[in-house]
């Protein structure tokens, strides 16, 4: 663990960290952001459309994901608070956590874990973190980050016995036509695929597939496909030295110019700027 090298006087909220406590809600469409996100639901359950399917997460279970993967909360059981800690990607990488954890998260897995001891439950932990962040002092914020790093390390120690997101504790809801399309995109976005291919995977005419997907997710199929490709590009730019032209090809873009246009539109930076900004935040 490298946290002893973090300057104690830093106001971590200025760097993009934050803890929120918001009512559970249904998102109108999938969205994405660049942080590692740790969340816990207060009671009941919440259902997510994440990457390639629907996953139902019970209250009290810690959910960890790289939020650059398109995700959407689609349903929940009870009106309650949903606690969330967001960790900027560069600072997550700074912690030099076990490679199996970093690879799983940046590879698109949603990881679930549950503390067996009620005295140190993840819900109590997130509540404490929220109160500490509300205090607003650098010491309180630093304490949250030290505890978050330790919790992720415990998660990594348990990881070898875990597998893909469907086995990580989610109860997979029934797979409908929209989910079949998201599953197909998640498995084939690096390939040269079109709307017709995605529609065929769900047994639909392309026009019907486009209407159904837009109504359910608030975006077009091609926008959703592009989000997955850009997410993969972010992973490669942040963790490898692959040339940008090759990143575009590896992520399924037909041309470098299309890749640049899509990346800048979604991320807000050009690929080289993004890589430089991530590297500049890493500790030496």
Would you write up a description of this structure?
The longest helix has 21 residues, at 138-158. Strand 3 and strand 4 (53-58) form a beta hairpin. The protein has a five-stranded antiparallel β-sheet. The chain is of the alpha+beta class and 284 residues long. The protein contains eleven helices and nine strands. It folds into two domains: 3-167, Sandwich (Jelly Rolls), CATH 2.60.120.280; 175-281, Arc Repressor Mutant, subunit A. It is globular.
Descriptive tags:
Arc Repressor Mutant, subunit A; 284 residues; Jelly Rolls; alpha+beta; 5-stranded antiparallel β-sheet; 9 strands; single chain
Q: What is this entry, summarized?
A:
By secondary structure, the chain is α+β, with helices and mostly antiparallel strands. 45% of the residues lie in helices and 17% in strands.
How many E-type strands?
9
Question: Helical segment tally?
Answer: 11
With strands numbered from the N-terminus, the spatial order across the biggest sheet is: 1-7-2-5-8
**Per DSSP, what share of the residues sits in E-state strands of 2 or more residues?**
15-25%
Secondary structure category: alpha+beta
Largest sheet: 5 strands, antiparallel
Number of domains: 2
Q: Helix amount, in percent? A: 40-55%
C-alpha geometry = globular
- Poorly predicted sequence stretches spanning 5 or more consecutive residues: 1-12, 161-175
- How widely separated are the two ends? 14 Å
* Main CATH class of the largest domain: Mainly Beta
CATH architecture of the largest domain: Sandwich
Query: Gyration radius, to the nearest Å?
Result: 19 Å
């Amino acid at each position: 663990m490298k946290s002893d090298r973090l300057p104690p006087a830093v106001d971590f909220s200025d760097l993009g960290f934050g803890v929120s406590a918001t009512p559970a809600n249904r998102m109108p469409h999938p969205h994405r952001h660049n942080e590692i996100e740790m969340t816990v639901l207060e009671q009941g359950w919440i259902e997510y459309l994440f990457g390639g399917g629907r996953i139902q997460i019970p209250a009290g279970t810690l959910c960890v994901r790289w939020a650059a993967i398109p995700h959407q909360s689609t349903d929940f059981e009870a009106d309650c608070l949903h606690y969330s800690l967001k960790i900027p990607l560069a600072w997550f990488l700074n912690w030099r956590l076990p490679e199996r954890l970093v690879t799983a998260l940046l590879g698109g897995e949603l990881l679930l874990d549950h503390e067996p001891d009620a005295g140190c439950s993840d819900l109590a932990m997130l509540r404490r973190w929220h109160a500490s962040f509300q205090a607003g002092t650098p010491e309180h914020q630093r304490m949250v980050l030290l505890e978050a790093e330790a919790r992720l390390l415990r998660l990594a120690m348990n990881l070898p016995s875990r597998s893909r997101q469907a086995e990580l504790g989610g109860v997979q809801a029934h797979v409908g036509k929209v989910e079949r399309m998201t599953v197909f995109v998640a498995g084939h976005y690096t390939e040269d695929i079109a709307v017709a291919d995605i529609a065929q995977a769900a047994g639909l005419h392309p026009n019907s597939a486009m209407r159904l997907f837009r109504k359910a997710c608030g975006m077009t199929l091609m926008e959703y496909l592009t989000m997955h490709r850009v997410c993969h590009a972010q992973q490669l730019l942040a963790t490898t030295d692959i040339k940008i032209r090759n990143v575009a090809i590896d992520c399924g873009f037909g041309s470098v110019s299309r890749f640049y246009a899509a990346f800048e539109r979604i991320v807000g930076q050009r690929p080289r700027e993004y890589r430089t900004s991530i590297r500049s935040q890493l500790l030496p």
